[in-house]
Amino acid sequence: MIRRASLFLVAVRAAHIHSTSSRLMLTSSGLTTSELEKSFGSLFREASKATGEAKPWIAMVVTAQMAPSNSGSKRSPGELRRRRWADARKKGRQLQQQIAGDVGAQVKCIDCAHDTTATISEAISQAQCIWVTGGNTFFLWHHMRRSGTDAMIRQRLKDGALYVGCSAGSIVAGLSLETAHWKGWDDDTVVDVDWTDESNRRTMGLTQHVIFPHYEPQWADLVEERRGACAHALLCLDESSAFISAPDVREVGEAAEAASVGAD
How far is CA 56 from CA 48, 53, 100, 106, 124, in A? Predict the structure, then answer.
């Protein structure tokens, strides 16, 4: 299926959009449709065969949603963090329930801003799927780099594991986090990083795109304005679509259009 609007192209696996050495599923908000659930199940089973792991396991990186906020709350920083962690674990349980009838995988939440290197490494090295949730993109990417989680993920994908990104998790899978600045949703001052430095904006590069999640028609003018200055191919995702790529997918038909925004 290829879904189009005047300023973006989004795709799911059936479009055979891209072939890479990694299994990827990049979304705005996860498995929002039955079609995406089916695609995830297929990709997960392929990853299980490739990694040779018998126990179905998902390592959920929840760091983006653990970012502190300037909400003016009277609760202590420790209490606020505990509440964010509880919410993150709840999302893990919800995902586990959602996929129970298909892949039946267990979900382990990890936070690369807080957990030890050993804890992160153990979870990722055993997982058939690394699922990176949404939240503050800048907080997520800073701590992925600082902790070495990005390198651990790259290595596990080489083993055949599946990467699923949601919102911020999709952005950091691309070539740059520059699109995280476009809507102004994420506070880039939450970590002390010079984001004007291109090397700090450069992300994992699991696909040769920059990712703009949560696309809606209201963002059409913004995308049109910003994409001209974008140094890389731009891929926009709405709430019901995903960009899916795997080693066994081959470019056919309209695949070349996936690198451009503005196809009618």
Answer: 7, 7, 11, 6, 12
Closest CA to 237 of 30, 94, 38: 30
Domain ranges of the chain: 2-259
Cα separation, 72 vs 34, whole angstroms: 39
Read off φ and ψ for residue 260, nearest 5 degrees: -125, 150
Which helix (H) or strand (E) covers residue 98, if one does?
helix 77-98
pTM to 2 decimals?
A: 0.86
Residues (pLDDT < 50) of the chain are: 1-17, 250-264
In CATH, the architecture of 2-259 is 3-Layer(aba) Sandwich (3.40)
pLDDT in tens, 190-249: 999 999 999 999 999 999 999 999 999 999 999 999 988 788 889 999 999 999 998 865
Contact 163, 25 (CB under 8 A): yes
Tell me the one-letter amino acid at 44.
F
Following DSSP, what letter does each residue of 3-15 receive, concatenated?
EEETTEEEE-GGG
Residue 190, amino acid: V
